[in-house]
Queue: 4 jobs
Job 1
Amino acid sequence: MDVAVLDRSAVSGNSHLHHAAPRTKLLAFALVLASIVVSTNLFIVLAVTFALLALIAAERLPARSMLPLAAYPALFAAVFAFASAPDALAAALIIAKAVTAALAAVTLMFTTPYPQVFAALQRVTPGLVGDALLMTYRAIFLLADKLADLTRAVRLRAGLSGAHPIRSAKATTRALGGLLLYSLDLSQREYDVLVLRGYSGRLKVAERPSTSPRTDRALIAGAVAILLTAALWRVYWISFIDYSWMPLAFALLCLAAALLLRRRNR
Amino acid sequence: MSHIHIPDGVLPVWLWLGGWLVALALVWLASSRSGSVDVRRKVPLVGIISALVLVSMSSEIVPLAYHINLTVIAGVLLGPQLAIISAFVVQIVLALLGHGGVTVIGLNTLMTMTEMLLGWGLFRALIAMLGRKRVRGASAMATVVTLAITTTLLVGLVAVSGVTGATARETGALDASNLTFASPFSDGIIGVGLFSGGEQAHEPEPGVGLSRFAAIVYTLGPLGWLLEALVTSAVLGYVARVRPSLIFAGALAPAERIIPGDEAIR
C-alpha cells in the first residue's frame, strides 16, 4: 500500500475531478456504491468498472498506482467466492463487486486530499473519532516510512535471511516491537504539539469549495445515470436481462474513446 | 479474522445496516464515556495505534490470504473504550483505501472491536492467573483463543446472512437466477459455456456453500492464528522487557523506560 503516491496525487493532481467539490465527490461515490450494492447482474457491475476505468483514463489519473490498490480486495473476495458461491458466474460477480467498489473508493481518495474527505466525516462523528481519523491517516505515512527503515536496517545487518528463518523471525518481531515503541513515543510528541497549539478537543478542517461547478454537475449526472441503470436492471430484470450487454458495450466504448484521446493528446 | 473479507452488495441489507447501527451506538457510547477526560492525550494515541494496525494489515501473506492485524496488541494498549473507537477508525480508513467495503464497515468494526476487547480481557485474565513473567505465553494463548472465536463469529455471520444457500432476491443478497440469462454471447457469437445455464440452472443445495466456506476458513485460519500469536507474543514480550508499564498499566500511564540489558536492576 503506497499511500505516499495516493497523497501526492490527491494534493498535487490537476484533473477536472481534483477541482470538483469534495462533497460532490463523496455523493457521487455513494451513488456508485449504491449501484454496486443493488446490482445482481455481472454485466452491469462490469459496466460500472469500465465506466470508472474510462474516467481514470480520461482524467489521466495514475492508473498504475490505482489499479493494484483496487485489485487488492479481489484476493480476499476470491477466497469467499470460491468457498460460498453456487457457480462460477456468482463467484465472478462477488469478485467484480469487490474490485469495482474498491476502484470507486480509490478514485475518490486519489482526487481528494484526505483532510477534505475526513472533514465531511467529522461532521457526523463524535469529536474523538473525527480527530482520531485525521491523526491516523497522518500517522500511516510516518509509520510506513519507519517500518521500511527498520526493515532495511535489519536486512543490512543480515537479520533477514532465508537460510535462517528463526533468526529472521526474531529480527522481524524486534523491528515490529521497535515500531510499536516508536509509535507510542510519537503519540506523546503529537500530544505535546497539540497542547502547544491550544487543542481543545476538535481539529477543524475548512471544507474546500468547488472550482469547477460544471464538473460537479457532470459527476452527479453520471453517478445518477449509473445508479438508475443498475436499479432498472435490478427491478425490471426479466424485461431487461437480454439487453444487459448494452451498458457494458457503452462503457467499453467510453474506455476505448478515453484511451484514444489520451494517446492522441500525449 | 479482524474483518470480514466480504465485498459490498453481497450481504443482505438488514444485516449490514444492523451492523452499522450497533457499531455506531457502541462508538457513540465509548466516545461519550472516554471523551470527557484528557481528550488531548487520547486522540494521538488512538490515531497512532490505529495507524500501526493499518500498516501491519497492508501486507498480506498470499497463500493464506491472511495479513497480520496486531489487534490484540492494540486492545492491550488501548483498553476497552478506546479500542472501540480505534476499531471504527481502522475500518473507515481501510474502506477508503479500497480494502473492506463501505457497507460492511459496521460489521467489520464489530469484528475488530470484538477481537480487541476479547484480546484485552483474555490477556488481563491470563496475566492475573499466570503472573507478570508469562507475558509471551499469555499473549499467545489470548491471541489464538480470540482469533478462533472471531473466526467462528465470521462463519456464524455468513450462516445468518444466508448468502451461501438459497439466496432470495428480496433480501438484497445474491440471486443466481438473475445471473444466468440468454446473452448474445451464448447464441453463437462467442460460445462461452459460462452463460449457457439459462433458466435450467439447478438450485444450489442449501448448507453446502456454508460447510465449504467453514472448511476453508477453519483450514487456513489456524495457520494465521499461529502466525499472529507468534508475532503478538514476541512483540508484547519485547515491550514487557523494555517498557513494562505500557502493558500492565496501559499506554496512557506515565512513561517508564528500562534500557535493554538492565531488566535485572528492577
Job 2
Amino acid sequence: MDKLIYTDNLAIGYGNGGKNSSVLHRDINVRLMAGEFACLLGPNGSGKSTLIKTFAGFLSRISGSLFIDGKSVDKLSGKEISKLLSVVLTERVMVPNMTVYDLVSLGRSPFTGFFGRLSLTDKDIIATSLESVKLNGFEKRNVFELSDGERQKAFIAKALVQETPLIVLDEPTAFLDLPSRVEIMHLLKDLAHKYNKGVLLSTHDLDLALQTADKIWLLAAGLPVETGVPEDLVLTNEFRKFFEREGVLFDTESGQFTKADNHVKSIRLVGKGVEYKWVSRALARNGFSTSDDPFSRLQVEISSDNKREYILSGADGKPVKLRTIEDLLERLKYADI
Amino acid sequence: MNYIVNKRSFTDGSKNIILFILLFFALLLLFIFNVAFGSVNIALTDLFSILLGSGSEDGPAYYIIHRSRLPQAVTATLAGAALAVGGLQMQALFRNPLADPSILGVSSGAGLGVAVVLMMGGISGFVLSKMGWVGHLTITTAAFAGALLVLFFILMLANKLRDNAMLLIAGIMVGYGASALVGILKFYSMQEDVHAFVIWGLGSFASVSWSRMEVFFPVLMVALAGSLLLIKPLNLMMLGDNYASNLGVNIRLFRFLILGCTGLLTATVTAFCGPIAFLGLAVPHLTRGVFKTSNQQILVPAVMLSGAIVALFSNLIARMPGFDGALPINAVTSMIGAPVVIWVILRNRKVLQ
C-alpha cells in the first residue's frame, strides 16, 4: 500500500518557526494509506484545521517532515501538489451566477490549457463525478440555490474531477442536517474504497466517525496524537482520555457520551432484540441503570411475541401491563422506590 | 448523461454567440452614431464619403469628423472597454461585488498628479490652465505619473500583504491620502487652477487627439490583450486564495499581474480622460445580468464590448442636442451607474444577507 500522507515529528502552528510563531501541536506521527477513510477528531482549538491546512500546503510547517505520496513537500511545486491532493474547505464561496457545472469544471484546471477550455475527456470526467455524488441533473443549478448538503457534494465533485489520489476535507459535515451528515460520510467512505483514494476529514460527528471510519485520528492539546481503528481506540480507553471532562462520561458499551451521576436507580430489564435496546436507552435517559440482577426491586419485562407490552413489577409486587414506553416512564416516575 | 451535458453546453454556446453578435452590432451602430451626430449637422452621404476617404479633404465637415468626432469615438470605445475589464478583474480578485478599478487608489493618484502641476504651477507663477495644448500635455503626463506612482506603491504592498482584504483597505487608504493632499493643494491655489482641476475631474473623451492616440491606443491594447491572458487564474481566484492555490495557481504572481493590468488600464484612461466614474463598477454587473454566467472566458470579452457600448452611449447622450457638449461625461455615467448598483443590491440581497 502507498503512504499518501506520512509525517515524522511534524510540528504545526502559525508562523514559520521564528520567534513569533505559535506552535499548536508537535511530534505528530501519522500516515494515511490509499483506500483508507480517516476521520480526524478532537475538541475545538486542538488544531484540526491547522493540520488539514498544513497538509494542503496553505500553512508551512514549523518543524519535522511531511511527505505527500512519498515526496517531501519541500520538493513539490504548487502545480504538482494540485495533482496529488484536492481540498474541500469551510470557507464560503460566493460567486454570482456560478452553476454547479461551472464550479465542478474548475476542478479540471490543473489539466486544462492556457485559457482553461474543457476537452471532451474533461467533460466525461465531470459527468462521471457528478454522477458519483448523485448530482446529475443539477448541472445548471446556481450554487447559491443548493441546500448545504448539495453544495458540499458539489465541492466533493470538484475534488473528484481533480483526480488526485488524496482528498482532504475540513469539517465537511458542519452545518448539515443529520440525514445529510450520514449521506456525506458514507459517500466519502464509499469513494475512498471504490477509487482507492486516501480520504481524510476533520469532524465533530463522533457517532458517525465511529460507524464509518477505517481509521480515527485523535488530536488534543497536550496529548500525543493517537491513531487507530475506531474499536481499538474505544477499548483502550483513548476516547475517554481525549474527550471526557468533568460531568461528561464516555460510555464504552454504547459508544456515546453521557452526563455523569445519572445512574442512581437500578432496574432489572428482561427482554431481547430491538425493543430491549430502545427501552434501556429510555431508562438510562431517565436515570435508571439496567441490570440482570434478579433481586432488583423493580423489574421491566418486554413481551414482543404478538403484541408489544411492557410489564412492570414494582415494589408492591403487582405487575402492570403498559402499552408504550411513555406510559412505562410515567409509571416509574410515581413508583415508590 | 454525456449526451445531455454536451447538448446543454451546445445550446448555451449558441445563445452566447447570438449575444456576442448582437453586442458587436450595437457597438458598431453606436460608433457610427457617435461620428454622425453632434452639434453640427453633417449629411449622411458626406459622412460616408469622408469616412471612406473619397470626399474632399478640406471643408468644415471633414475637419469636424476627423479632428473631433472620430478620435472621440475611438477614445470612448477603448476607455469604456478598459475600465469595464478593470472593474471585472477587481470584483473577481477581491471577491467583492462593489469593487471597481479606482479601488486601488490609482485614479486618486492621477488626481494628485494633476493637482500638483496645476496648482503648484499657479503658485510658482505660470498658469497651466491658460497654456493651451502644452498645458494639456503636462496635465496628462502628470496624471499618468501620479497614477503609476500609486500603482507601484500598491504592487509593493501586494508583495508584503498576503491577505486580499488588507490590500483592499490599503488601496482605499492610499486613495484617501491622495485626496487629502489634493484638498490641501486646492486650499492654497488660485481660482482658475481649481476650476481647471474640477473640469479635469468631470471627465471627457474629447481630449485625445491623434498625436496622443499614439500613446493611448497601444498602451490600452497591450493591457487589454494582457487581460485576456489572465482569464484562467481569474476564474480560479473567484473561489478564494486557498482553493485557487490548491488548483495550481501561483497566487502571488497572478495577483501581481492582475493588479498591474487593472492599474495600467485605469492609469492610462484616467490620465487621458480624467476619472470616469461608475463605468468600471456598473458594466460588469450589467454584463453578468445579460450573460448569466460566472465564467471569465465569456465575461472578459463580453465586458469589453459592453464597456465600449456604455461609454459610446454615454458620450452620445452627453452631446445630445440641447446639451451642446456641455454635459460632463461623469454625470451621464453616474446616472446610468447608480441605478445599476441599486439593482444589483436588490437582486443580491438574498446572497448578501
Job 3
Amino acid sequence: MFDLKKYRKKSPWILHYNAGSCNGCDIEILACLSPKYDLERFGVINTGNPKQSDIFLVTGPVTFRTRERLVELYTQMPEPKVVIAVGSCACTGCVFRDMYNVEVGIDRYIPVDVYVPGCASSPELIIDGVVKGLEILEQKTKEMEKPFKLFKEATTDDGIVNRRHSALKVGEDDAKD
Amino acid sequence: MKKTINIPLGSQHISLLEPVRFKFECENEKIIGVDADVGFVHRGVEKACTTSFKFDAIGYVVARVCGLCAITHSLTYTAAVEKLLGAQITSKAKYLRILLLELDRIHSHMLCLSHTCENAGFEAMFMRIMGDREHIMEIQELITGNRVQFDYISIGGVNRDLAPESVQKIKENLYIVKQKVQGYMDEFTNNWSLSLKFKGIGMLSLDDAYMYNAIGPLARASGLRIDVRNEIDYLPYHEVGYKMQTHTDGDINARNLVRLAELVNSIEMCENILNGLPEGDIFTKIKGKPQGEALMRFEAPRGELMYYIKGNGSAMLERVRIKTPTFSCIPAFSHIFLGGDYADAPAVLASFDPCMSCTAK
C-alpha cells in the first residue's frame, strides 16, 4: 500500500487559528492561498480539522480566552506537527504586550518551530516560513522513525546470562551517544 | 422530554476567519434560538489607550484593533483629536484620506464576496476574486508602503505623498478591477449557485432593520438609507461622486449586490480623486494637547464606526470609547438566524461580513 510518511512532505495540511490577532495576518494567510502567491503549489491545503493537519499556523497574541482552545487544538493534532507563529504579536506580543487580557506570544503555551515576523507579515514571508516548516516536518518524521534499543547487553556472571538489569528507559541509550 | 438539540458553530471552524461561537438551538433543521459569544479576542485596547500610550501614538495603536478597517480606525481617532485641537488640515490630505478609505473598502468588500463564494462551495470564484484583489493590495503597497497595516494617517495630515509616477500604475490597476467587477455582477445575478440559491435566505425586512438597529451594507440591502458618508461634512465625499447604494430584498443576494455596487462606486471615487487631486502640502504641524470631549463617526466597510475621546490637557487621554459596526449589528444577526435552516448558517454568517477583532477590541 501507500507509504503515507513519504507523501507527508509533499502535501502538508494547514490548520489556522486566530488567537486574538487583528485579522491583518489572517487575510495575508488567505492571500497566500490565492492565485498570485499560491501556497497550494507546495501541496498545502487549508483545513479546519486539527486531526488531519500537519502544520499549525497561529496568529495573534494569546488572549486569556483563546489559550485553552490553542492548547486543545495543539494536543489534538497528530505527531509529527510543526507550529508556525505568524506575525509579530504571535512572536512577542508586539503592541498588545502590556494589555491586561493578553499574554506575551504563543511560545509560553506551545512549542514554536518557526517565527515569522512582521506587522502584518507579508505573504512572501509566510510562504518562506511554511517552506522552512516543511523541512522541520521532514526532520521530525525521520526522528520519529529512527529505531531505538529497548534492552542493554546482557551481563554474564559465573557463566550465567543475567538479563535482570537490561531494561532500558526510552531515550537513555540515545543520550549516551 | 427535551425536543431541541444544541449545535455549536465555532470557536474554531473552517468557515470562520476568527474565533466566535454561535450556539444554535435547533428543532429538526430549523433554528429556534441563537446565542452568540464574541469575546474571544478581547485584548483591552481601550484601557491601554488611557494608561500606556500617549495621545499622538494612539492612532497607530487603534489601527491594530482590526486589520481590515485599520485605516478607518486610525482616521476616526485622528479626526477626533484634530477636532479637539482645532486643527485645519490641507485639502490634499483630505482627498488622500478618502482615497485610502475607499481602497480599504474595496479590498474588504472583495474579501467578503470571495468568502461568500467559498461558503457556497464555489471555490473557483473564490480564487478569481482573491486573485483580482491583489491589484488593490498592490495599489495600497504603492501608496503607503505596506499591504495591510498602513500607518498612513497622522495627526495633521498623512505620512506619505502620492508619487507622480505611481499614479499611472494605480489607474491601470483600478481599470482592471473595474472590468472584473462588471464580470462579477453578471455572475452574482445569473449564476445559479450565487444568485438563486441565495434568494430568500437570511431575510431582514425594512422594519426589522430599523427596529434591530442594523447599519452598513446589511441595512442598505434591506432598503434602509443609512450611510455616514452621506451625513458628514468633514471629508468632501459629495465632491468626489459619492452615491448611496441600496437594495430592497434584504436577503444574501441583495447584500452581495449592494457590496458590488459599492465597489463600482468606490472605484469611481478613487478615479475622480486621482484625476483632480489638488496641489499643496500633505502635512500641517499641530501643537497642543487635547482638552475636552469629542465624538467622531466614519463609515467603515461594515457600517458606522464611532469614537468618543475625552482629554484633560495632558498627553494621556482620560477615556477612549470605540463603538464598532459589528457590535451594533449583533441583534440583527441573531434575528436573521431565527427560523432559518442550520445548513444555511455558514453562508448567512459570511454574508454579514462580521469582524470579531473590532467587536471585542
Job 4
Amino acid sequence: MAEPYVELKSVSKYFGSVVALKDVSFDVCPGEVHCLLGDNGAGKSTLIKTLSGVYAPDEGEIRVQGKPTRFASPADTRNSGIATVYQDLALVPLMSVARNFFLGREPMRKFGPISQFDAEFANRTAYDELAAMGIQLRDPEQPVGTLSGGERQCLAIARAVYFGAKVLILDEPTSALGVHQASVVLKLIVQSKARGIGVIFISHNVHHAYVVGDRFTLLKRGRCTGTYAKSEIDRDQLLNLMAGGKELVDLEQELGKVAKNSSA
Amino acid sequence: MAAEIRDERVRSVSRLSRLLSRPELGAAAGTVLVFVFFAITAGNTGLFSAKGIINFLEVSAQLGILAAPVALLMIAGEFDLSVGSMIGFAGILIAIPSVFWGWPIWLSLLFSFAVCGGIGALNGLAVVRTGLPSFIVTLGSLFMLRGLTLGLTRGISGRTQVSGVHELALHDPLNSLFSGQVFSGLIAWLSDIGLVGKRADGLPSISGIPVSIVWWIVLTLVCTWLLTRSRFGNWIFAAGGEANAARNLGVPVARTKITLFVMTAMAAALFAAIQVLVTGSADTLRGTQKEFEAIIAVVIGGTLLTGGYGSAIGAMFGALIFGVVQMGIFYTGIDTDWFKLFMGAMMVIAVLFNSYVRNRAMRSR
C-alpha cells in the first residue's frame, strides 16, 4: 500500500480527568477511503479535531507524509493539505453558491490600481467544479439556502477539493440526508478517491460506510478496537462490531422479557 | 465522469423573476409610488420645479450620506445607534477649536474626522471584544456622546450653540468640499435652454447643485462597489450571514466589523462638516434621531435587520423616499406633524414587503 499521507501514532488526549482518546493510531493513504466508526461519545469528534489541528495531542504524534508535525492552528492544517468539512459545512445560506465557494479566498482581478472581485471567474469555476462532481447548478448566483442538504454537502466538499485538499475529513456527511441525497454524497466520495484524495469518512451508519470504505476503524470509549480492510470483514460483522451489535441482541432479549411479563 | 444530476422539478425562471428577488426592489417601487402620489397631489405646487427638486434632494442627500455606510454595517449584522449623537459631537469638534481656539477650519475638520473615526473604532472594538449586542453598546455611546457634547460645549462656551463659523470658513481651502454648489455652468445652460426656470431678475432659479448631493451619490456608488465587487464586500455579507462559518474560512470578521463602525462614524462626521459649514454654526442637539432615520432608510432599502442581506442602492432609495415625503408634505400644505406617522408606517410596510421578496429569493429559484 502507498505511504499514508497523514497518520496518528498512539495519540492520547485528556480533558482534565476525562480520557477522550487513549493510544489511538489512525492513518489515511492517497486514494483511499478510511471510515471511522463509533457510537456517540466514542471519541470521533476529538479525533477529528486532533487531526484538523484544533486540539494538540497530549501524547503520541501526528505525521504528515512521514514527517512528525505539530499543527499551530486549523489554518496551518488546511495549508498542509488536510481539509475538514464539518457538519455545519461553513456555508452562508444567504450568499450565492459562487461567493460561498470562494469565501475567504476571493479571486481578484486588477483594473489599473483597483482590484476587484472576479465574479465572472467565480461563477464559472463554481459551476464547472460542481458540474465535474455531478452537481448541475441552476445558477451559480443562486443563494446556498436554495440548495438541498446533499447539494450543500457536495458544495463544501468540492470547495475543499478545488483548494488543493490532499486529505478530506468528512464529519457525518450523510447523517442528516435522505436516501437519494446520501447516495449523491457517497458518489462524490468515490470520485474524490478516484482523484487520489485520501478521505476520512466519519459515520455511525455502517451501511453508508461499507459501500464506499476501503478500511474501517472502530472507536469505542476513546480507544481503537481494531482496523479492518474491506476484504477481511463483511457488513454484518461490521454491524456487530459497532456499538449496536451485542447491545442490540441484549436489548432484544430484555424487551422480549418485558413483553412476556406484561402479557402474563 | 458521473452523469449530470438534473433535478426534474426545476423550471427555468425569467429575467423578470430574478429582478423581483433583488433587495432594492421594494424601495425602487416605493420611490415610484411616492413620486406618483406627490405628482398628483402636489404637481403644481413647485415640488417638482428645479428649486423643489434641489430642496428634497438636499434632505435626502444628508440622510443618504449616513444611510450608505449604515447599510453596510447592518448587512454585517450590527447596529450603530450612536451616529446621531456623533453628528452633534463632530459639529462641536469643528466649531469650538475654530471659534474659541483659533484653529484654521481645515485643521478642525481633520481633527473632527480623526476623533470620530477613533470613537467609531472604539465602538467596534467594544462590540467584537465583549460580544454584547451592538444595539446595547452603541445605545450607550448615543447617550455618552450627547452628554459629552453638551458638557463640553457649555463648559467652554457657556451656551449650547456655537456660531460664527461662516466668517472663519470663507477662505478656507476645505470649505468648498463641504458647502457651496457645483455644476453652476451646467445649470445656467439648462436654464438657457428652458429646462430650469428663471427668476424674475433673469437668473436661474437655482445656482448649482449643492455639494452634499454629490457626496451622497459618490458615497452610495463607493459603498455599492465595496459591497458587490470587492473582497471586503464578500466579508461583510458573510459576517452578517453566518459569522462562524466566515471565521472558519479565515474571514477576519472582527476587523471587518470594526472597519464598518469607523465608516459609520466618519459618515456622521461628514454629515456634521456639511451641516456646520452650510449653516455656519454647531448645536449640541444636531443629529438627534438621525440614527433612527438612517435605519429607516436602510430598512426601506431592503436590508435585513438580522444582517446578511441588503444593498447600498436600496438605502439610497430609502433616503430619497424620506426626502420626497418630507418636502412633499410641506409643499402640499399638509400639517408636517403627520410626517413621522407616515414614515413609520412606510417602514413597517417596507419590512413586510421586503421579507416577502426575500422569501421569494430563497424559495422560488
